[in-house]
């Protein structure tokens, strides 16, 4: 009986919250981005590629729209510009080869947010997907003999017609917070951290020969994004999430 009462109480809370007005917000964000190649979901560190994969740091910026249907559930849609890539280093004794790939991508993510909020704060996790299009990129291959970089051609334009895939589609997971900072509880500072795991191959054909077993691996992209921003909300006021006292309930 106690379990049944608990379930009914929970359902009542959810229904009550679902009847509340919708809150929508539009904002901007900016922060660091770090990309890295993966070797399929079972070997994310390229364990069979004969080298060490590394993060390529860059910049992340975007515009995002959020809709909270109630205190617990919402959706997030964004348009982002992400600079990322990857590095790969293959070591042979005291000598090594390092490949650096940088790319600029327009990313459109859509995710469902599940969280909780009070008068001043919203905390949430999110899960969804993203579509990305690589505008351009550049590559550099360097040889190091006894730690000394040998002469090379520097960065050259990446080939997105024959070598790399321009399209990037995958899964996004992450979380964040919104802190309401003005008296009317409309303006808020946001913090988000998300991880994108690509499902499409990075290379159009077989992986490059600088991998030790190119025929046995499947390279896919990924990126870690951190964003700090500002958002302005419309509709439901966050003041409605203020805890109600016994005196307020009597007044109602």
Could you walk me through the main structural features you see in this protein, from its secondary elements to its overall organization?
The chain has 252 residues and is mainly beta. Helices cover 9% and strands 59% of the residues. The protein has helices at residues 2-18, 246-251; strands spanning 23-39, 52-54, 56-68, 73-92, 95-117, 121-145, 148-149, 156-157, 167-180, 187-198, 219-235. Strand 9 and strand 10 form a beta hairpin. The protein is elongated, with a radius of gyration of 23 Å. Mean pLDDT is 85; it is low at 3-19.
Q: Compute the CA-based radius of gyration.
A: 23 Å
Q: Within the largest sheet, what's the order of strands?
A: 1-3-4-5-6-9-10-11
State the end-to-end CA separation. Answer: 31 Å
Query: How many runs of DSSP E, i.e. beta strands?
Result: 11
Globally, the shape reads elongated
Share of helical residues? under 10%
Extract low-pLDDT stretches: 3-19
For the largest beta-sheet, the strand count, sense and barrel status come to: 8 strands, antiparallel, barrel
Helix/strand-derived class?
mainly beta
Mean pLDDT level: 85
- Count of alpha and pi helical runs: 2
Task: Give the SSE order as H and E letters.
Answer: HEEEEEEEEEEEH
Strand content: over 45%
Essential attributes:
mainly beta, disordered N terminus, 252 residues, eight-stranded antiparallel barrel, single chain
Short description:
The protein has helices spanning 2-18, 246-251; strands at 23-39, 52-54, 56-68, 73-92, 95-117, 121-145, 148-149, 156-157, 167-180, 187-198, 219-235. By secondary structure, it is mainly β.
């Amino acid at each position: 009986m106690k379990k049944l009462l608990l379930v009914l109480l929970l359902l009542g809370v959810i229904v009550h919250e679902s009847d509340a007005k919708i809150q929508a917000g539009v904002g901007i964000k900016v922060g660091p981005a770090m990309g890295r190649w993966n070797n399929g979901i079972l070997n994310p560190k390229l364990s069979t590629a004969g080298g060490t994969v590394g993060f390529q740091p860059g910049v992340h910026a975007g515009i995002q729209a959020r809709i909270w249907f109630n205190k617990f559930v919402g959706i997030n849609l964004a348009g982002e510009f992400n600079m990322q890539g990857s590095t790969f280093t293959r070591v042979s004794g005291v000598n090594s080869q390092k490949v650096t790939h940088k790319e600029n991508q327009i990313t459109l993510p859509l995710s469902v947010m599940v969280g909780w909020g009070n008068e001043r704060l919203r905390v949430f996790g999110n899960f969804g997907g993203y579509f990305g299009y690589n505008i351009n990129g550049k590559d550099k291959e360097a040889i190091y003999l006894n730690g000394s970089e040998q002469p090379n051609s520097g960065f050259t334009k990446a080939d997105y017609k024959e070598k790399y895939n321009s399209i990037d589609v995958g899964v996004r997971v992450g979380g964040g917070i919104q802190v309401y900072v003005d008296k009317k509880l409309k303006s808020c500072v946001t913090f988000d951290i998300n991880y994108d795991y690509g499902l499409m191959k990075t290379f159009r054909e077989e992986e490059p020969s600088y991998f030790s077993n190119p025929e046995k691996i499947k390279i896919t992209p990924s990126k870690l994004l951190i964003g700090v921003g500002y958002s302005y909300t419309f509709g439901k006021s966050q003041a409605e999430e203020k805890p109600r006292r016994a005196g307020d309930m009597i007044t109602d």
